[in-house]
Amino acid sequence: MSDALTNRDLRAVLKIYIHVTQLTQEALANLINTNQGNISKILNGQRRRYSIKEFESLRDGLRIPGPLLGLQPVPQATEDPYRGAPDEHAHFTQRRPAVGTSEIPSGTVDRSPAPDQEDDEVKRRAALQIITAVATGTAIPPGTFETVLSSLDEVLDQPVDIDRWQRAIREYGYLTPRKPAGFLIRDLTADLLAVSELAHRENTQSTKNELLRTNAALSTLMAVQLENTENRREARMSWDLARRAADTSNDTSLSVWIRSKEAEGGLYAGMPAIDIEALTKEAVAISKGTPSAGLVRAYAVQAGLAALQGDGNSASKAMNEMTEVFTKLPDSTVADSTYFWGWRESIHHWEEAYIFTAIGDSRAQNATDKSFALIPPGTLGPTANLRLIHSLRMIRTGDIDEGLEETLTTLHEHTQSRTLFRQHMTSQILAALPRQARTLPAARELRALTSI
C-alpha cells in the first residue's frame, strides 16, 4: 500500500483496500464521493489518469495521510483534530429538531436527502469509517463511535426475534478465540446499530430487558475486539455501555461477567491496579456469592494482579477462591462450547498455569499440560497464549534458548493478531531474561517484534 500511494497507483490502492476491508465497490464509492461505475473502471484498468480533486477525495474519504499522496493533510484535521466536517461527520443526534418543533431547512441547493435519510447516511458512514480504520490500522475518527453507540429514533417494522440474537451472541463468542483480532468488528458494528434501534422503539419491558442484555453482550464482544486492535478509547466506551446495559436489564450474572472481563483486559493492558481492584470488587459484591463464570474470572484476575505485584500469599488465596467457585459452577457453564461466555476446565487450568508461572510455583507445568490436553481444536488464541506462558516458565527455570525460540515461533505464527495478552506476555518474557541473555540474537529479534 505504501508503494502504491507513493506511485499514485490508484488502481493498486483500491484493490488492496477492497481486499483488506472486504467492502463492496458501492461502499467504497460512497466513502470517496464517486460512483460504483467509476470504481469499476479504475479497477479494470480503463482509467489511468486522475485529477487532483479525485486524489483529494481519496485522501479525505479513506483518511489517508496527505503527504503519502503528495498532498496536504486532511483540512479539518489541521484545524481541529476533534471536530469533523459538519456535513459529513457531525453527531447525528445534533442534527435532529427538538421534540415538538419542526426542522427548518437552511439556505441550500441540496434538496434531496430528507432528515431521516440524512441521518441514515451519517450512521452508515460512521460504521464504514470504523470498519475502515480498524482494517487499515489507523485511528478511528473522533465522533464516529459515539454515532454508532447512541440511541436511535427510527421505528423499525421488523419483529423482535430474541432467539436469533442469542444465537448471534453464541456465534460471536465461538468465533472470538478462533479468529484474528478485529475480525468481527464489521458485523458487530452493524448488529449494535440494529439492536439499539429495536431497543429504542420497544415498549414491552420484558422484551426491552432482553434487548438490553443483547446490547450488553454485543458491546462486550466489541470491547474485546477493540482492545485487541489497540483502540483503547473506543474500548472504554464499549465497556461503559456494556456495564450500564447489563445493570439496567437486571441481569446480575451478566453484570458480574462484564466487570470481570473488563478487569482481565485491564490487567493485560497495564491498567492501574486500583481500577482493576475496583472492577473485581464490584463483580464480587454484585454476585452475592452466587457461582458464575464471571465470579470465577473475578477471583482469577485478583490472583493474577497479586502475582504480578509479587504477593504470592494473596495470589494463592484468590486462587483458592477461584477453585472453590469453579467446583460449584452449573454444568451448562462448564460445558459451554463457545470458550468465551463459559468457564471450561481447560480455561481453569489455563488460569492456573498463568498464575503459577507468575509466582514461580512448580505446579505451573502440570496445569499447562492439563490445559493443552483439554483446549478444544481450533481455538488458536488460547493455545498460542498458553505456549507463551510455557515459554516464560522455561526462561525462568533456565531454559532460555528454547523459551525464546518457542516465543518467537508463536509470535511469527500469529503476526496478524497482536492481542493484549500476547503483548503482555512478551513484555514479561523480556523482563525475565537474565542480563547476559538480553544481547542474544533471539532476544534482539523479540524486542524488534514488540516495537512493530
Please provide a brief summary of the model.
This protein is mainly alpha-helical. It is built from 24 helices and no strands.
Overview of the molecule:
This protein is mainly alpha-helical and 452 residues long. It is 67% helix and 0% strand. It is globular and about 70 Å long. It starts with a helix and ends with a helix.
Describe the global form: globular
- What's the average pLDDT? 81
The percent of residues in helical segments reads 55-70%
Beta-strand content: under 5%
The total strand number stands at: 0
Describe the biggest sheet? none
Q: Compute the gyration radius: what is it? A: 24 Å
N- and C-termini, Cα separation = 17 Å
How do the helices and strands follow one another from N- to C-terminus?
HHHHHHHHHHHHHHHHHHHHHHHH
Structural class: mainly alpha
Give the low-confidence spans.
Answer: 76-115, 151-157
Helical run tally: 24
Features:
452 residues, mainly alpha, 24 helices, 67% helix, 0% strand
Write the layout of secondary structure elements.
Elements: H1 2-6, H2 10-21, H3 25-31, H4 36-43, H5 52-62, H6 75-79, H7 86-89, H8 115-136, H9 144-149, H10 162-175, H11 185-201, H12 205-228, H13 232-248, H14 252-269, H15 273-287, H16 293-308, H17 312-327, H18 331-334, H19 345-359, H20 364-374, H21 380-396, H22 400-413, H23 420-432, H24 441-451
Helix pairs in contact: 3-4, 8-11, 10-12, 11-12, 12-13, 12-14, 13-14, 14-15, 14-16, 15-16, 16-17, 16-19, 17-19, 19-20, 19-21, 20-21, 21-22, 21-23, 22-24, 23-24
